[in-house]
């Protein structure tokens, strides 16, 4: 009887809600907010007559493969309960349903909840699948709490399945049934089930993540020091002691972990001064960093042999390094321009750029302004300009116009006599020209790797010896041929990442084509004209933000030509 009463009250509340929309009354509860979103997307509930479906070929079978076995075990206990189990992807598309009796199957058939059904909130309104995806937390929608009238006799209790490390929404698990007096008991049940699915992700797909978490917990409990763990996709876990670290310091520690250095001790320059860090990698993309004591700046803690900046003997590269050497001896500002990953900062420092490592030059990272603010960042730069060291300002493309103007005023006011080198990631001639005029600077273009591919063997050897000298990674002639044919959109940074991945996988000795990523294995040798054509298409797509029609207009060719060339060069368009 109480359920019937609740249903009537909720139904009346929904009627009142839609009436109030015309009067402009504010709605505050999550349910009313969901109704409001649904009304904005769909209009009147009467507009909904059935549930749309997508073809099964478009469903994410990977999620079903991952969660199918544990959900089959869960479903075995549903016989005779009238309960149905639903698994949906993060977009609210039903991947599979489990029923163990006719009552549950009839319930799902009646409301159109079949494989491929789209239950996103903006498609069918408030429900126990789509609203979970919208809110990112468990919900229970009963009877007339649903937006659509055809759900008024159903109870849907859903919860998100989050990646245990990245916290990204992977899937939605929902228990659906007819109205029942004891539906509150379904809430803890579905939460328990989703927790088990999240642990299943660690056990089956991310065994290294589980090992990383165990190591993090062990160190955090046994040592009273800051501990930070990094997982896939930028996920981070930190101990209570690590809360004392400044955001900029945390970013530097993250960058160190992403270098995939060998396990061991390192000295990193944090905001409090040089600090000893202990790095432990647990497979690819998982690491634990323990922040130790401060050390004397003169400490000679062994560090891995760095990549020499001068790796490369091509005329193009030697010409650039010669220009940069001269710029480091003159007080006029200099711009180093080029694509991301070409080595601008390392050239400016005359040392490999490794975040936080001490060098003979002074590095001022423009990205830090977003953390400490323009005033403090400019004050810090002012202090650097009063030293006798070469000042390198990294990434001025991240500065807004007021910050750039403040930097220009600072350089003019202090009449500095120390060399100032600024890096600018851009291939836009107008942006380069504007900054040349702003700072009265000359510019040096640092070439993309594809423009000095003859240096690739030297770069390979230098990076491999820097990261893992004992691995003796040598690229076979066939491998080098494929690497020379590859377009290297990520430049030297991408090459370094490739060798890092080989080291992390335990590879030693000769690297064969089968060791390379599939995109590199399928590379074909391009002529000079083809390379120019490929680069033109890439730049047009980038300028058009992936829109192929706009890219065709920029290039002055037909859309069909762009499609054909993209297929030939294996360009994704993203």
Helix/strand layout:
Elements: H1 2-21, H2 30-42, H3 61-75, E1 84-89, E2 94-99, H4 102-110, H5 121-124, H6 130-135, E3 139-142, E4 154-162, E5 169-178, H7 186-204, H8 207-222, E6 227-230, E7 236-238, H9 247-258, E8 264-270, E9 273-281, E10 287-294, H10 315-327, E11 334-338, H11 344-349, E12 362-365, H12 369-372, H13 374-385, E13 391-394, H14 401-414, E14 420-425, H15 429-439, E15 442-445, H16 456-467, E16 474-475, H17 477-485, H18 491-504, E17 510-511, H19 518-521, H20 528-543, H21 548-555, H22 559-569
Parallel strand pairs: 11-14, 11-15, 12-13, 13-14, 16-17
Antiparallel strand pairs: 1-2, 1-5, 3-4, 4-5, 6-7, 6-10, 8-9, 9-10
Helix pairs in contact: 1-2, 3-7, 7-8, 13-14, 16-18, 20-21, 21-22
GO molecular function: ATP binding; sequence-specific DNA binding
Protein name: Sigma-54 factor interaction domain-containing protein
Organism: freshwater metagenome
């Amino acid at each position: 009887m109480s359920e019937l009463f609740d249903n009537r009250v909720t139904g009346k509340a929904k009627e009142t809600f839609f009436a109030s929309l015309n009067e402009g009354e504010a709605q505050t509860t999550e349910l009313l907010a969901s109704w409001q979103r649904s009304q904005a997307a769909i209009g009147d509930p009467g507009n909904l007559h059935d549930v749309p479906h997508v073809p099964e070929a478009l469903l994410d079978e990977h999620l079903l493969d991952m969660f199918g076995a544990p959900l089959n075990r869960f479903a075995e206990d549903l016989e005779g309960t009238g309960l149905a189990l639903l698994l949906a992807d993060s977009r609210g598309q039903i991947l599979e349903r489990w029923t163990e009796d006719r009552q549950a199957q009839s319930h799902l058939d009646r409301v159109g909840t079949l494989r491929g059904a789209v239950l996103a909130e903006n498609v069918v309104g408030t429900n126990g699948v789509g609203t979970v995806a919208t809110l990112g937390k468990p919900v229970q929608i009963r009877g007339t709490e649903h937006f659509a009238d055809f759900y008024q006799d159903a109870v849907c209790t859903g919860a998100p399945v989050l990646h245990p490390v990245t916290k990204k929404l992977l899937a939605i698990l929902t228990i659906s049934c007819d109205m029942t007096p004891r539906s509150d008991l379904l809430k803890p049940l579905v939460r328990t089930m989703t927790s088990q699915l999240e642990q299943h992700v660690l056990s089956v797909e991310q065994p290294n993540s589980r090992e990383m978490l165990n190591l993090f917990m062990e160190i955090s409990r046994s040592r009273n020091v800051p501990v930070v763990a990094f997982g896939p996709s930028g996920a981070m876990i930190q101990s209570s002691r690590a809360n004392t670290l400044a955001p900029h310091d945390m970013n530097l520690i993250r960058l160190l972990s992403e270098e995939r250095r060998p396990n061991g001790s390192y000295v990193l320059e944090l905001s409090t001064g040089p600090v000893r860090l202990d790095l432990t990698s647990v497979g690819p993309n998982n690491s634990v960093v323990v922040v130790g004591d401060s050390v004397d700046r003169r400490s000679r803690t062994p560090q891995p042999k760095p990549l020499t900046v001068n790796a490369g003997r091509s005329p193009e590269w030697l010409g650039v390094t010669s220009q940069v050497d001269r710029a480091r001896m003159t007080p006029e500002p200099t711009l180093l321009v080029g694509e991301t990953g070409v080595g601008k900062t390392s050239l400016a420092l005359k040392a490999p750029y490794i975040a936080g490592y001490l060098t003979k030059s002074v590095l001022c990272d423009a990205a830090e302004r977003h953390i400490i603010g323009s005033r403090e960042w400019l004050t810090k730069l002012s202090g650097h300009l009063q030293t006798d060291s070469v000042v390198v300002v990294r990434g001025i493309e991240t500065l807004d116009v007021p910050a750039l103007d403040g930097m220009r005023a600072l350089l003019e006011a202090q009449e500095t006599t120390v060399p100032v080198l600024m890096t600018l990631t851009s291939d836009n001639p107008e942006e380069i020209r504007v900054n040349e005029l702003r700072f009265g600077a000359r510019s040096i273009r640092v070439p993309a790797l594809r423009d000095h591919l003859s240096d690739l063997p030297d770069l390979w050897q230098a990076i491999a010896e820097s990261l893992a000298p004992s691995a003796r990674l040598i690229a076979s002639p066939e491998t080098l041929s494929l690497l020379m044919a590859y377009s290297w959109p990520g430049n030297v940074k991408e090459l370094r990442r490739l060798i890092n991945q080989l080291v992390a996988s335990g590879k030693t000795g000769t690297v064969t084509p089968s060791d390379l990523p599939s995109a590199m294995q399928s590379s074909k040798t391009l002529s000079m004209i083809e390379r120019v054509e490929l680069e033109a298409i890439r730049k047009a797509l980038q300028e058009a933000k992936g829109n192929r029609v706009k890219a065709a207009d920029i290039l002055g060719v037909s859309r069909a030509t762009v499609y054909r060339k993209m297929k030939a060069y294996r360009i994704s368009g993203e």
